[in-house]
Amino acid sequence: MSGPERGMLSLLVVSAVLLAGCAQPDPPRNPGSSAAPDPTGATTPSVIASGLDAPWSVVYAGDATIVSERDTGIVRELLPDGSTRELGAVGGVLARGEGGLLGLAVDDAFLYAYSTSSDGNRIQRFELEGETGSLALGAAESVIDGLPSAGNHNGGRIAFGPDGMLYATVGDAGEPASARDLDSLGGKILRLMPDGSIPEDNPFPDSPVFSYGHRNPQGIAWTEDGTMYASEFGQDTWDELNLISGGENYGWPDVEGIAGDPDYVDPVQQWAPADASPSGIAIRKGMLYIANLRGERLRVVPLDDPSTSSEMLVGTHGRLRDVTVAPDGSIRILTNNTDGRGNASPDDDRMLRLD
After folding, report:
1. Is there a contact between 309 and 268 (Cβ–Cβ < 8 Å)?
2. pTM given for the model
3. Measured distance CA(190)–CA(158) in Å, rounded
4. What does 116-173 look like in DSSP terms, one character per residue?
5. Phi, psi for 17 (deg, rounded to 5)
6. Which of 192, 229, 336, 347 could be cross-linked to 321 through a Cys-Cys bond (beta carbons 3.0 to 4.6 Å apart)?
7. What is the pLDDT of residue 41?
């Protein structure tokens, strides 16, 4: 090899080394892997109730704490000594698979309940009668019925937004194509007036549909400025945390997780289902809390950087179904180990408290 040829070869080798050193790795497919500080200041929750039967949702009416039981159809009031009393039962509940008595919400003097019946999923409301410690349910009044139902993917979370409207998550009921069909209520987040009528400013005329392209959303919450978030079960690849805007398509069944497709809204964070299965969510002091079932953990997302998160209670209390902020400002968490999928201890299920 001549001198010039050796010089050219050396230059090529040095250039290749420099380029390799400057190359950047591909971005991670799971953007929720970095850490965020623990905002509660506590890592060991106290148990404030035990012996619950497949609890699904917890809400507050004044200073009363109210819990739904999926399989019995019973609504319970939690008493200060940790015991519970039956506030009432929702009639006609068909508990099969993931269906049954699911989400609760409170507005004025009414308790709203999302449940599965022989005719599909439905939302009813009941006047709350009496006082804390002796509450009872009045007669059932239909808000909306005939929602898609199945042994799984029932959605089921309901909550009132800062606009005073009732929002409800509806799963695809095992029919993925329904999620992108605006003539179906499967795979949607709905927006309703408290009496079940359709708000005039909904994104689709004469339709309760607020957003679509969802597989099985099970958590909804709002920040102080009205920004809406929802948690969603994926299929085999990614579970999701989504920022919800009216009229938008969130991709299912065409995409799952972050796809970078301009036709769909990507989640702000995604996780492997084994680490997640996100159900109820709540927001407190700029942090979003997510109760995870299969992942058996409480995930905490700082909303000033929602692509990051930290984890708490990993594997210490089993499956977590719901998380809420109580009137006293504490975090309340429902375990879900008696629903047939968890490993129940003698005192399950429980309500936990983090200050």
Report:
1. no
2. 0.89
3. 9
4. EETTEEEEEEEEEES-TTS-EEEEEEEEEEEE---SS-----EEE-TTS-EEEEE--T
5. -65, -45
6. 336
7. 54
